[in-house]
Design goal:
With about 200 residues, the chain is mainly alpha-helical. It has one domain. It is built from 8 helices and no strands. The relative contact order is 0.12.
Length: about 200
């Protein structure tokens, strides 16, 4: 019941909710993990239920691990980047608070993405404005919650909040580039070693 109450409060009273996370310590890490699990399931299900005209790929082409990463990586890298930037700019939020509160930003996505996907089965391409409008509303709702999360968790004013969000996004992009570079280097190293082993086996 407490978890449901927190979800309802975060959706409809985000200001009070994020205040409670920062100063009342109400939210728990297990709730954040559960929310992210629901977000991953919602993404996968929505891709499979989307109407034919609105599909970006076929259901058989959906890779569950990749779709999970599309949800989890932004969450984790945002928490790391925001914590790193806020530490330099004297933010008050701890990493645990940022990680937990960031997960609740996904609640509008969880609530709306599957109904939107189901609705797409009833719409035609001429009615794409309805489909897109709901999408914009969903992401707008998430953006507002993210803004309030940063402002309240770190006790910043409006201008400083905008600045730390932009710097956090920049930090996320840098982390993603580093991850891609490391992945590429590791992959090349593995291919190189495998080719050498194959050559040794062929010559022996």
């Amino acid at each position: 019941m407490e978890a449901i109450k927190l979800v309802r409060q975060s959706l409809f009273h985000p200001f009070d909710f994020f205040y409670d996370i920062q100063f009342e310590k109400r939210a728990k890490l297990i709730n954040a993990v559960a929310i992210m699990a629901f977000a991953c399931v919602a993404r996968i299900v929505s891709l499979m239920l989307s109407g034919f005209a609105f599909r970006t790929r076929e259901a058989v082409d959906v890779s569950v691990p990749i779709e999970i990463l599309w949800i989890v990586i932004p969450w984790v890298t945002w928490a790391i980047a925001n914590w790193a930037v806020s530490t330099i700019i004297d933010g008050e939020g701890k990493f645990k608070d940022i990680l937990i509160s960031s997960s609740y930003v996904y609640l509008p996505y969880i609530v709306l993405i599957i109904p939107v996907s189901l609705l797409s089965n009833l719409l035609t391409l001429k009615e794409i404005s309805i489909y897109g409008g709901i999408y914009y509303f969903m992401y707008g709702w998430m953006a507002v919650m993210l803004f309030l999360q940063v402002m309240i968790i770190h006790d910043f004013e409006f201008g400083k909040t905008v600045g730390i969000i932009l710097l956090s996004i920049l930090g996320m992009i840098i982390m993603w580039l580093i991850i891609v570079m490391i992945y590429g280097l590791v992959n090349q190293a593995i291919v190189f070693v495998v080719n050498i082993l194959k050559e040794i086996r062929y010559r022996s």
